[in-house]
């Protein structure tokens, strides 16, 4: 079923963007020339009832976002609509995950970070939640800064969602390639917060080929988040052995060598006002990856806090200013690596003929 909603807004190049070569850090603050948030967030059509083998319909309104299921995971897919660029390599698909903080669902993240200017499919996946952990959004109602993260159930909900998302990625890609008609070539990955942890874990696992990736406010180590919450709340965590072991397993800084060995170009984005993932953690990960021989790793910083959408962050809503800026840098990053300017027909030539008429 196709959607009956407005097309995504046209691509507007960001006013500031990170360079594309050696490891570096960029202080990208608010700009008076930054594009304003859109007044209309695209609502995806409901294809959740369709099975993963049901192909996306191809029609003259193929530019509409669609919703489906791949390997049991819900997704929102935005078709390539950029008119000023075309793919310059084999990557035709960007897969992205939301976080436990706004945006917290595939639909909300697709509205916050649509990356409209990238001429590939952008597919946003919901984070999987196990029956054992119930719905992580309920256990952590205000996000990772919730005191629920100090409980065993809270860290288990986070860790289980991150690990399952990474483990399911090969099966999800197989269904997406069949549904969307995308070839089995390297993919690009993107993620926010917990979703950024999924990206880093997927790079470390190396189950799929990844050409480039970008992460926003990545949760590098759950224990660091817990310490931050403990300081602000005055409470201590009550993790059991299983929760503590899971958090230790997801200390992704210890997998820096595997992440670097994946060969993917990687952009790390942090927030100077982020209390959950301080910008120093982002730059520290950048430096560690560079020391491990990552071929291309960069860091960018914004004067922003953790969330990239208004609370509760579960529905598609117009993007907030911070999301517009991050979307611009993500778009620029992926365009530089996955796209080239679209060829345009030569302008018509006016002929001025002179001569006598009979």
TrEMBL record:
InterPro entries documented for this protein: AB_hydrolase_fold
Record field: compositional bias (Basic and acidic residues): 33-46
Segments of this protein annotated with the region Disordered: 1-65
Skewed-composition ranges (Pro residues): 1-16
Gene3D superfamilies in the cross-refs: alpha/beta hydrolase
Protein name: Peptidase S9 prolyl oligopeptidase catalytic domain-containing protein
């Amino acid at each position: 079923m196709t959607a009956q909603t407005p097309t995504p807004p046209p691509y507007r190049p960001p006013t500031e963007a990170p360079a594309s070569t050696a490891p570096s850090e960029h202080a990208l603050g608010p700009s008076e020339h930054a594009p304003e948030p859109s007044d209309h967030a695209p609502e995806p059509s409901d294809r959740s009832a369709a099975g993963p083998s049901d192909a996306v319909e191809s029609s003259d309104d193929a530019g509409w976002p669609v919703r489906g299921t791949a390997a049991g995971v819900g997704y929102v897919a935005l078709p390539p609509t950029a008119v000023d660029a075309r793919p310059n390599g084999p990557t035709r698909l960007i897969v992205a995950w939301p976080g436990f903080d706004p945006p917290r669902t595939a639909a909300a993240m697709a509205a916050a970070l649509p990356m409209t200017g990238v001429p590939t499919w952008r597919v946003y996946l919901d984070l999987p939640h196990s029956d054992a952990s119930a719905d992580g959004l309920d256990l952590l109602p205000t996000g990772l800064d919730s005191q629920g993260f100090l409980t065993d159930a809270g860290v288990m909900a986070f860790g289980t969602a991150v690990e399952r998302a990474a483990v399911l990625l090969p099966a999800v890609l197989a269904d997406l390639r069949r549904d969307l008609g995308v070839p089995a070539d390297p993919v690009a990955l993107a993620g926010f917060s917990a979703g950024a942890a999924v990206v880093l874990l997927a790079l470390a696992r190396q189950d799929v080929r990844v050409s480039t990736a970008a992460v926003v406010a990545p949760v590098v180590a759950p224990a660091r988040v817990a310490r931050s919450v403990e300081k602000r709340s005055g409470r201590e965590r009550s993790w059991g052995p299983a929760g503590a072991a899971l958090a230790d397993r997801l200390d992704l800084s210890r997998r820096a060598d595997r992440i670097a060995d994946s060969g993917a170009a990687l952009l790390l984005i942090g927030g100077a006002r982020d209390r959950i993932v301080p910008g120093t953690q982002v730059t520290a990960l950048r430096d560690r990856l560079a020391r491990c021989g990552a071929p291309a790793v960069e860091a960018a910083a914004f004067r922003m806090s953790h969330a990239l959408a208004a609370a509760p962050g579960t529905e598609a809503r117009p993007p907030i200013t911070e999301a517009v800026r991050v979307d611009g840098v993500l778009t620029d990053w992926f365009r530089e690596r996955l796209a080239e300017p679209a060829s345009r027909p030569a302008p018509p030539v006016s002929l001025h003929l002179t001569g006598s008429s009979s």
